[in-house]
Amino acid sequence: MEPARRGEAVTGRPGRELMQVVATAGHGDHGKSALVRALTGTDPDRPAGERRRGLTLDLGFAWTALPSGERLAFVDVPGHEKFVTTMLAGVGSVPAVLLAVAADEGWMPQTGEHLAAIDALGVRHGVLAVTRSDLADPTLALRQARERVAGTSLGGVEAVAVSATTGRGLDELTAALDRLAARLPVPDETAPVRLWVDRAFTGAGNGTVVTGTLAAGTVAVGDELLLTPSGERVRVGGVEAAGEPLDRVSGVARVALVLRGVPRGRHGRGTALVSPGRWSHTTSVDVRTRFGEASGRLARQMILHIGSAAVPVGLRPLGPDTARLTLNVRLPLHIGDSALLRDPARRAVAGVSVLDVRPPTLVRRGAAAARARELASWPDRPDGAQVLRRHGVLHRSDLAVMGCAAPPSALAIDEEWLADPGHWDGLHRRLADELTEHGRANPLAPGLPLESARLRLGLPNRRLVTALARPPLRLRDGRVYAPAEESGETGEIGED
Q1: Torsion 45-48-50-52 (CA) sign
Q2: Domain boundary among 357, 382, 407
Q3: Cis (ω within 30 of 0) for the bond into 252?
Q4: From which residue to which does the signal peptide run (predicted)?
Q5: CA dihedral over 37, 38, 42, 48, signed as positive or negative
Q6: CA-to-CA distance for 415 and 467, rounded, in angstroms?
Q7: Is the peptide bond before 363 cis (omega within 30 degrees of 0)?
Q8: N or C: which end of the chain has fewer CB within 10 A?
Q9: How far apart are alpha carbons 175 and 169 in whole angstroms?
Q10: Which domain holds residue 488?
Q11: pTM, whole model, 2 decimals?
């Protein structure tokens, strides 16, 4: 199935266009929710108690059709400093933000904290809205906000002065959002699904309903997904996007899924629904830190925010900008994932890029320093060649669950196993050396059993030893022989 192109139907129904998703950000009471209401014509979908009090405590959701015909969904986040975790749950899965700054109050500490989180997550797309421009001249607030934003991942975003009360600037803001939506990347609809749940409740008929931002991939009625971290398999009984029931939907989209077979109490915010067999479920990752302090100055206990999840982690510095994170719960991750580390006590954040989801143990003396030197040369998003070089030999499926494609340089051992060419040549030389040493130590028992050879080389499967036993090495009756050893006629076996 080819990736969707902008404007094509992604559900198999004519007229169902690609949806993009934007999260709000900014200081509390700077008009984010009022702006969403003015842009969409509806209140952000949140509990009735919040609407009565006029105070945003949780995530809200609304959507609209832009002048181009494209649909845009909003995730409205709380601005109060006590609800940073909730704010990050809303921003964590979206590709763009609408940053609000009030003209009559200007830049505020919570605005800065939200922008720091956006920068640490590496969000590169957005629009700056100077709100409440009917209450004060927006010029100063606009200039101040542009200066603050320019030095972050958002860079020189488009800025608009607007008033949700009078309607001033709403047309200009809508046009800016339309241009933003046109610039956003269209994700691969064939990518593995990872839907971070940001809300869950019991729907009609006692079915479990979960909502979230589908960043990529496709979910269809009848699909089987894995609920993490519990590991249960669940069935999708219904799909909805923008209030419309669908047979299937592709990311990016705000979606609601009706699930069958969900254990009670295991599907709340921070859980994830993923494609089975397509993600590494791990409690240990090596990361590169960015934005803020060197890894050695970060707290040893922090909170990792990715998607809607907020997970306590232990941090072990490796190099100046690399660290080992130990998570207290298993998360579905890929190499190249971006996340945020937060120290609530200091209100400090740091962005991280996941370099390895299957890192080596660091138990030997000097192992941490050696690992730091190795990671120093890695890019923020290692590719399949880099990963295969580190592991030497991998099953094809191992590369996929780590989030990497098989590199063209990989040596195909058979239909299942891949090897780094340099590592494979080294293994062949090591096997020859092991056979020579075995022959010296056991002159009356020539030949090394396949299982012994596998263990000495640290290989995961005996079939790999069979493939290594190429001339001048010989294979017979489950043993590998050095060239000088008498073994009779050669033969091949394919033991597992």
Answers
A1: positive
A2: 382
A3: yes
A4: none
A5: positive
A6: 12
A7: no
A8: C
A9: 10
A10: 391-496
A11: 0.85
